[in-house]
């Protein structure tokens, strides 16, 4: 690597300038048991706890305000738009005319915010199990305040599965914004073939689309849950599209999977046209070209599919 | 979050056990270039800045509230009494009847608090150069609030040397509660032979005693500044007593040096008697036996004296 | 010690579970001033120093053997193939018949290794300024040992610019595997318009292609040097193609830029065909689809171009 | 505190100088769950594992070579003499003529090394349960090599209790160099009243002395095990002397307790005389004055005794 080391983004050197107050407090996360990711802190804005988990809102130097739950980064002010635009816009844009949407989870409010930018949306149900987390985000995440007040939003505090089974109306798009399916974790049951087949699919309207966040999708990390979610959905739906994007604050590439029993519209130019016609305001991440690239997985990831 | 938090690739599901709120935020200090000391954080209570330095009040898990200036721990709620009792009581108790006291520095207020526990004290001048630090501590360090309001206290914002030279009255005890004498540091001049000889000594009353914090005094760290301060004072005063104590939050043994041109009273039983007679409330650290031990330095430290 | 080890106050008895050998040693890198990336260590295999820089070969738990120069990760065993396949194969495959190649830098040997997999290559000049780094990698990076012995390789220890100006023959592909252009850094001059125009271009044969690593290319980090290198090359060459890939051990997406005065062949199927015909062994990262995705930049990155 | 913060020993500032290789690798230890102590590393010299524990020999920048077992620092080259001189010399010097010694644990060899400096010693039994640790220290701790070869040393691999009960001869001094009595830990049984009364005491010769390391003895940490060991021994022996010393690499003050049914000789001048007469070479830490100070506990520690 050359005449001398290429610095990968490091710009330290001025011990004094970067010392002192500016670097004495840190947020530290174990990405894996043997891998740590540490952000310098400006302050710890708010802390709380629900019956399910601990909640913190931190002000970090590299990524701005960060929502941390049980010691794990949920989303960072500076780049949460990559996650939420990727989760929401591809399925809504692929649908000819999405009017009714159901979010499993999403209590942070950012997923609702992106959905409500779509002029076609008439009704949005957000079903999160943790009231305290929802209240915490309502109070402290200014960027989502408007979404929480939108008359089209119906907020329900309940288990997503129970709620879907309880309801009778159909949805044009159902979105899974849930914790990864950790063996024995709270969301494991919400990623199973039977859940998709007997709970999700029956609640999709004709031409309806299901999308879920699908965990890390890096050249190595995609084997944790991403490949498995993709392969499960392929057993339930006839059209399945996995895609991914690098999210700086996660120190990894993240994945999503879109699925339907009807062909998915993915043409770049048509996506750009629909963005112009249907979405209020300017996307920061998703457009036709970006989605084309995001939905073309690298050889290293493709190889681990059956 | 909860049912719905998307975990960003963190595979250890048990947030509370492994990480969780309790251990994700840390205060980190470089004790030396190659040695770090890290406290888990509950919160960052207050931050401020003066023309001279950055100020933080942290709530730490191992040591309670901690005052940090320019990224260096000044004092921790749980054990600052060791530092301040050691700085104040030996000189005041060694003096037959200390009425007037002068503190160089001490803006935190804890040194004044300990001095004002002495019933003999009639007048106390605290001279700190940094108004903002003093205001910060006044507002946030509840434990010193009473001291800041004591009518015997005269608070002056000025350079300690200039103030001592400006004044004409004499003091029974003069206390140096200043930053270590770092070459080129702001306090370097306040540890020199000429400063002691021509500025401090002339302001001591008959039988007067000077004491100063003297930096780290561990078996290795005492060579940084402690030995040098001790040796300097021996050139200026006829009676000089160095002593030390381990302060957990400093991760080191700390040192102080007491000096006078009159014999210093150090008898353990007599010290205990004077403590009972003169000091309001109960000492937590200093008594006769403790001082006997503190003023008997280990062979490793004694060996580096001329 | 077991029965006999005196534990120095550590109260968690279960060494293996909580800490133990597996997690007590860490490699820590400052990705940016306020961002740290830490790998658990198995061992520090080798350390060395040249007149230019410090060199370490570490055995890390998350990424395998890691080459670190001046405290910055150069490449990690587990994913260096992403960086080196991306640097080498797109330009060589876009060229109809690459016979002669020149590497500026590349002392690690991995770039040469990937080039020498191309059956068309008859002559490869690797010009690195740091003899010690080259010797270090020759001795310790087994994966590149064969490449260092390949008769087609001519290894030169010299400044890349001086060497290119000294030589008269032309090259089908010139590769920049150099440190990022840090203001005042050693490689800054090797990323300038005049260097590309008057030193590189004259040494390219008809249809020749230049490629360079171009630093971080994340949605935020691409503004550091990637955009600037891309814009500079557009002033010198008529066909310029930027592309990027996420490299886990760098905790970022990385960028490369390919440039030529002749149209670049980028068709995915044709690339796959040429891979089959021209490259010995199987690529782990680059194929037609992967390159199509890699060379389609996201909206967030495209937006910062003039 | 004062005109500006007093730096407690921090001397950072030169980002570049201290960056790079010199600071990228760290040993990290959790002193407590919320408190970390980190040493910059030069290298990881040796690693091993026994049926009981993991073993590492590290080369650290602040404290030299460090023996780490199950992720916990056992002893550091630079200051292990404080621990081992404090454990060995006070009991041996208090005894009129110590000929036979028994060490429970001590596999590192440093305790034996200090004992064998005493000219009066004719026989030393070291009983450690972990053969691998003993072999590891024999091979790698050059400083103890001579001790391991001393003909007076009888090395036994066995459980200390079983060995003491098996033997019939008596010892002038029995030394406990064992892990702290952690509830459920391997050494818990070796700190009980019944063990002292029925296993240790019967093996002491007339005038015999027992000593044990007694864990952290800081103003707060002494309540973990130190006070409890002291109080237990007071129920079994008529003369009990606790003492302590700050050990820099432990980031704490450490404690030991000496006990006998015969009065213990503690006069400082007599201790100095016996050191001169009986000990080969020069002590680095223990002398009469040092022991007087070490055995005079501070008020904060004394207060927690019945």
TrEMBL record, chains A, B, C, D:
| Pfam families registered for this protein in UniProt | Spermine_synt_N (PF17284), Spermine_synth (PF01564)
Name the domain of life: Eukaryota
Keywords assigned by UniProt? Polyamine biosynthesis, Transferase
The top EC class, named as a word, is transferase
Key word Transferase present in the record? yes
Q: Which GO terms describe its molecular function?
A: thermospermine synthase activity
Q: Where is this region: Disordered?
A: 1-20
Which reaction(s) does its UniProt entry say it catalyses?
S-adenosyl 3-(methylsulfanyl)propylamine + spermidine = thermospermine + S-methyl-5'-thioadenosine + H(+)
Q: Where is the composition biased (Low complexity)?
A: 1-15
Is Metal-binding found in the keyword set? no
Q: Where is the active site?
A: 177 (proton acceptor)
Show where the PABS domain sits: 24-261
Query: Which PANTHER family does this entry report, sorted A to Z?
Result: SPERMINE SYNTHASE (PTHR43317:SF9), THERMOSPERMINE SYNTHASE ACAULIS5 (PTHR43317)
Family the UniProt entry places it in: Belongs to the spermidine/spermine synthase family.
Instruction: Tell me which HAMAP family the record gives.
Output: Spermidine_synth
Q: What is this protein called?
A: thermospermine synthase
Q: Which organism is it from?
A: Olea europaea subsp. europaea
């Amino acid at each position: 690597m050359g005449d001398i080391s290429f610095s990968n983004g490091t710009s330290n050197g001025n011990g004094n300038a970067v010392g002192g107050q500016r670097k004495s407090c840190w947020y530290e996360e174990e990405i894996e048991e043997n891998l740590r990711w540490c952000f310098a802190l400006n302050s710890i804005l708010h802390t709380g706890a629900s019956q399910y988990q601990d909640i913190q809102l931190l002000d970090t130097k590299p990524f701005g305000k960060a929502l941390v739950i049980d010691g794990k980064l949920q989303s960072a002010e500076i780049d949460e738009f990559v996650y939420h635009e990727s989760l929401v816009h591809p399925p809504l844009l692929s649908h000819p005319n999405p009017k009714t949407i159901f979010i499993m989870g999403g209590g942070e409010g950012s997923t609702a915010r992106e959905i409500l930018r779509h002029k076609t949306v008439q009704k949005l149900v957000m079903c999160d199990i943790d009231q305290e987390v929802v209240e915490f985000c309502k109070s402290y995440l200014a960027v989502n305040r408007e979404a929480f007040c939108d008359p089209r939003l119906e907020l329900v505090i309940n288990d997503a599965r129970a709620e879907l089974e309880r309801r009778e109306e159909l949805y044009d798009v159902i979105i899974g914004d849930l914790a990864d399916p950790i063996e024995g974790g709270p969301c494991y049951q919400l990623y199973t073939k039977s859940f998709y087949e007997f709970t999700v699919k029956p609640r999709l309207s004709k031409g309806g689309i299901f999308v879920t966040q699908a965990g890390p999708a890096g050249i190595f990390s995609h084997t944790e849950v991403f490949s498995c979610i993709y392969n499960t959905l392929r057993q339930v739906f006839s059209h399945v599209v996995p895609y991914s994007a690098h999210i700086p604050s996660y120190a990894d590439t993240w994945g999503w999977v879109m699925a339907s029993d009807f062909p998915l519209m993915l043409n770049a130019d048509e996506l750009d046209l629909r963005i112009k016609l249907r979405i209020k305001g300017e996307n920061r991440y998703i457009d036709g070209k970006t989605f084309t690239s995001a939905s073309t997985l690298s050889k290293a990831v493709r190889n681990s599919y059956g």
